[in-house]
Design a protein that fits this description.
single chain; 4 helices; 134 residues; rod-shaped; mainly alpha
Length: 134
């Protein structure tokens, strides 16, 4: 028996094409986020823009010398130690947050990958039914 529904076939192949596109985007996201889980500060551009001035990035270099002299002039050496601790705590929070976001995006990409495979398989089977053997 031959199917006559051309509209159904076009819809099915478009769904397969979309599932294939989502598959490739998900694979790229998995690779990217796997690298970010291992090294969360690898995105140098984001790291410098948001945290570089606080954590010792290129924006910090100009102020480092002035802040090192300020505690000596005011006579409060304890402030310099607390600034280092604050900067270290801030860096640790940034790294933990970046790693959490990378893991979250990795899980979403894995779910999208699984869904795209399931949708593609189901639609492809629907488009190409097995012929009944008589």
């Amino acid at each position: 028996m031959q199917r006559v529904s051309v509209t159904g076939d076009i819809f099915g192949y478009l769904v397969c094409l979309l599932a294939t596109f989502i598959f490739f985007v998900s694979v790229a996201a998995i690779v990217n986020n796997a690298f970010q889980v291992v090294h969360p500060t690898a995105q140098h551009r984001m790291f410098v823009r948001h945290m570089g001035s606080r954590l010792g990035g290129p924006a910090w270099a100009g102020r480092q010398h002035r802040q090192a002299q300020a505690p000596l002039a005011s006579g409060s050496g304890a402030d310099a130690g607390s600034q280092d601790l604050d900067r270290g705590a801030l860096r640790d929070r940034f790294i933990a947050s970046a790693r959490y976001n990378a893991v979250r995006r990795l899980v979403v990409a894995l779910v999208m990958l699984a869904l795209s495979i399931a949708v593609f398989r189901r639609t492809f089977v629907w488009l190409n039914p097995r012929e009944a053997v008589t």
